[in-house]
């Protein structure tokens, strides 16, 4: 009887899982296993919101596997030790797994492959988290892309293979002891801060499919405009599901292609390729999460201000659109993309706090925390990454709020202490007359903070710092 191991990573699904299909096709029985290794990514250990999501995603995956005749084996520790030991115990000829693109996980794959090879076992890696293998996307001269637009054009010129259906039956292995998921302590205990996550999400393959179907049934048609309006349900909100692999990029891509043509559909496909571009950047620049791609930013004169950082983290900057975004992040493990740009720009430009500090906070709070997307996005806003927005492009949070949340719906939802303010003052409460503030129950500096920095002062300081950095570079 031939045996194979299916090593799950961030591909926690049965649909369109190339590793699963290959394992079932080449063996009489398959052992699905997930290994929790907190050390594989070094300093980038999984954050709290991601751990919450992982718990529920693994529970959902185990139920789906049991419906087809297998169960999920859980082990905690080093895959370099656990996978070869399981292969030996099972007499497995092959281990099937998803390709990794994070530096630590890639190194782990190489180490596992070497140990398995020494024992006569093959580690077979399958494309799972991406549409394309990053090493396959080349410029016409054989180089690597550093700008999104030509990269996306190259992707659009390639064919995306159709997704595979899940096997109807999986002959599992029942006689190996498994860790209990509850013993991994992935969920918060005291305080239980996950109420907003529970109210907002359904982790697992079924939840991912339901969200995709809902989005493509209507909102995608207006996605080009609605994606910028945080008070509107205009985005897919699929990012956590895609990050954990509960739905494959190929499945999302194919489903979107089947939607009627329109600008919304085009923009959505391009957004999928932004994620692909982030993976591509991390593949070619393994230091992306820690070091700026533009080396001159190593000399940028950042300002260390723990009080300002804490005010930003807790949504108490005195700028309603910023505070709404930071509170949405904390409560739900997600933030609207337009507001991500606003909050990030405010941190690195108005407050002059290093982008790595924002990256680290998002890493802990985002349910979807993805090493590639998180790093690439923060570097983009900070102006130090590939194809980045120029540093001197500084979002004004008041103007951004008025433009994209004109009725204040988003702010009122996440900053309820301002809910009774008229639209005219919801994004700049300090401009409201005292009688308006009093009628709305707002006491600046008490029920809601005064702005922690003057916008013009922050902008001028940011531009002066940028000028100083460029002067140092040219000296």
Average of the residue pLDDT scores? 95
CATH architecture of the largest domain: Orthogonal Bundle
The amount of helix comes to 40-55%
Rg of Cα set: 24 Å
Write down the domain tally. Answer: 3
Taken from the alpha-carbon principal axes, the silhouette is: globular
Short description:
By secondary structure, the chain is mostly helical. The protein has 20 helices and five strands.
Which features characterize this protein?
47% helix; 5-stranded parallel sheet; globular; DNA Cyclobutane Dipyrimidine Photolyase, subunit A, domain 3; 475 residues; Serine Threonine Protein Phosphatase 5, Tetratricopeptide repeat; Rossmann fold
3D architecture notes:
This protein is mostly helical. The protein folds into three domains: about 5-125, 3-Layer(aba) Sandwich (Rossmann fold), CATH 3.40.50.620; about 130-160 and about 205-285, Serine Threonine Protein Phosphatase 5, Tetratricopeptide repeat; about 295-475, Orthogonal Bundle (DNA Cyclobutane Dipyrimidine Photolyase, subunit A, domain 3). The protein contains 20 helices and five strands. A five-stranded parallel β-sheet has the order 3-2-1-4-5, with helices on both faces. It is globular.
